[in-house]
Amino acid sequence: MIKRLSKVQNVEDAIHCKEHYCEPKAILRLLRMPFFSARSCKYNDTALIMLFSPNDIKDLNYERDLGNPGEYPYTRGIYPTMYTGRLWTMRQYAGYATAEESNKRYRYLLEHGQTGLSVAFDLPTQMGYDSDHPFTEGEVGKTGVAIDTLEDMEILFKDIPLGKVSTSMTINATAAILLAMYIAVAEKQGISPVVLEGTVQNDILKEYIARGTYIYPPAPSIKIAVDIISYCSKHLPKWNTISISGYHIREAGATAIQEVAFTLANGIAYVKSVIEMAGLDIDEFAPRLSFFFNAHNNFFEEVAKFRAARRIWARIMKEKFKAKNSKSWMLRCHTQTAGCTLITQEPENNAIRVAFQSLAAVLGGTQSLHTNSRDEALSLPCEESVKLALRTQQIIGYETKIPEIIDPLGGSYYIEWLTNKLEKDINEYLEKIEAMGGALGAIENGYFQKEIHRSAYEYQKAIENGEINVVGVNKFSTEKAATKFTILKVKRKAVERQLDRLKKIKLKRNNKKVRVALNNLRNRAIKSFNLMESIIECVKECATVGEISGVLREVYGEYREKNIF
To answer: What whole-number distance in Å separates Cα of residue 336 and Cα of residue 295?
Structure first.
């Protein structure tokens, strides 16, 4: 039996109304749940349905809170024509084994219509170790491509003209080294840095919060991130200097509200650091800041999340930092579908989850998109699966006609109410974080980590007790074995080939010049100079990722996470 709310003017009234069909405590319990936003519940087998109306957004001011697409505060999108002028960049995250295998995968995706590259690096590369280091045993090429020297980078982009393709690199602690290699490869292709387009993630703060691939303590790590931003603002004007990432925060268990709040708090910390440490004017670097968000299962919440994030960031940049260039107010973002929602049971259903998550990202106004593959809960994706993932967003882009309408959900009573609600809750978090001394203070006292752990626990508990449905796990589950996929494995021969190449490079390079370049880097690090030019010099002399990181380890030390629990 279903009954509608009576004698209730809006959703907030329903919480306090004595005429509704659900106990107030039950509603309030649901409303406190971070994953609950649709405001529906059951009591004594009676479904309570919330109906949204103009009364729920009666205080909404179109010019102040929405604006047209391409106009401040960019709630409806950062470009006037959005996808009617050009579709989002279809950028599939890929990389495994050695540069040869990964290059083959990139060219495969480009041949099937991918419009941008996205590079995944293996764990040793991310952590600043060479493939021959004892710590890397069993990890070479497993979570991404192994890159030790400039020669690996040249092979990775063989027959791919870097002046004509946009490349995103998911790399943080060693971001300066991999960016230096990319610049050097482009120069070898005869391409000037001024025309290079792409993104280096370079978001070290979220590593301390959620992901863990940090090397140095926070202060020198931020300094290196600022060096990249400062260098690129002068030499790579089309390059996105940082991708401030909420994706990994959400994957660790954060709610949508926490994802945006913690990400924007990190963004504020970076902006302050660049102004204070590099002395740049806000409008010199802010237009090239970018963001990276998750697209999770709660469809309407995800759409509203993107809208709220744009509005909040625009106001932060214009009102807090007094940016004058309208491009400095824009929150440009890449989106990836939620890896944490992929399951091993009936993995073909993951393709359906990804399709809806992708649609939420598109309706939310993302600038680029990665669609996860159906078999990623089992292994690195095979070619057939990555093609299906790419085809998923291509079908949205070219068949559904959805891109022909700009912000089609704009004006929905529920979407606008939910956008307002998310904005309010996100701003409350930002105020708490600011009172702690900003993102660095919140990291040091463990606030971010504790909040994420709490939310992750509540979410998992809700799945286990059936409050959140996962089809094939706690809803319509069967005892049948998972569908068999071709499991992509990194072969031992590939690892041996990587080790052999590294050994030969160390023998044939001019080791005297390598030592000079590394010593120059050490001196600049000690004197707190910008490191980018020295790192470019090092990679051109074929210094390895591990050698360059080793020098910086000597100067800065290594970070050890505190026990916050």
So the answer is: 6
Helix ranges, 245-331 (H): 247-251, 256-273, 282-285, 299-315, 326-329
- Answer whether 88's CB lies under 8 Å from 368's CB: yes
- 298-307, 412-421, 556-565: which range is least confident on average? 556-565
The candidate with the shortest Cα–Cα distance to 212, out of 498, 452, 381, is 452
Beginning with the edge strand found earlier in the chain, give each strand of the sheet holding 333-337 in spatial order: 239-240, 198-200, 167-170, 116-120, 89-94, 368-370, 333-337, 289-295, 242-245
431's CB contacts (< 8 A; 6+ apart) are none
Q: Where are the alpha helices (DSSP H) in 436-485?
A: 438-444, 447-464
What whole-number distance in Å separates Cα of residue 199 and Cα of residue 202? Answer: 9
**From edge to edge, which strands make up the β-sheet containing 2-4?**
2-4, 46-49, 41-43
Angstrom distance (rounded) from CA 174 to CA 152 = 15
Apex 187 CA angle, 186 and 191, nearest 5: 70
Domain ranges of the chain: 2-53, 70-464
* Strand-pair category, 46-49 with 41-43: antiparallel
pLDDT confidence tier of residue 382, bands split at 50, 70 and 90? very high
Coil/strand/helix, residue 535: helix
Tell me which CATH homologous superfamily contains domain 70-464. Answer: Methylmalonyl-CoA mutase (3.20.20.240)
Specify the pTM: 0.92
Are the beta carbons of 304 and 418 closer than 8 angstroms?
yes
Number of residues in the chain:
565
| 170-213 pLDDT, tens digit each | 999 999 999 999 999 999 999 999 999 999 999 999 999 999 99
Q: How far apart are CA 349 and CA 378, in angstroms?
A: 13
- Which residue in 123, 78, 422 sits closest to 260, CA to CA? 422
Tokens 């005429």 — which residue? Answer: 19
508, HSE (Cβ side, Cα atoms, 13 Å): 8
- The amino acid sitting at 144 is G
CA distance 501 to 508: 11
DSSP characters over 91-160 = EEEE--SSHHHHHHHHHHHHHTT--EEEEEBPHHHHHT--TTSGGGTTTTTTSSB---SHHHHHHHTTT-
Measured between alpha carbons, how far is 412 from 401 in angstroms, rounded to an integer? 19
Which one, of 323, 308, 313, lies nearest residue 290 by Cα? 313
* Under 8 Å between Cβ of 167 and 562: no
Q: Which amino acid would we find at residue 174?
A: T
Three-state SS for 371?
coil
In whole angstroms, what is the distance from residue 363 CA to residue 412 CA? 12
pLDDT of 45 > 70? The answer is no
Q: What does each C-alpha distance from 154 to 137, 149, 189, 201 come to in angstroms?
A: 24, 9, 9, 20
CA 213 – CA 175 distance, rounded (Å): 11
Any idea what the Cα angle at residue 331 is, between residues 325 and 336, rounded to 5°?
A: 155
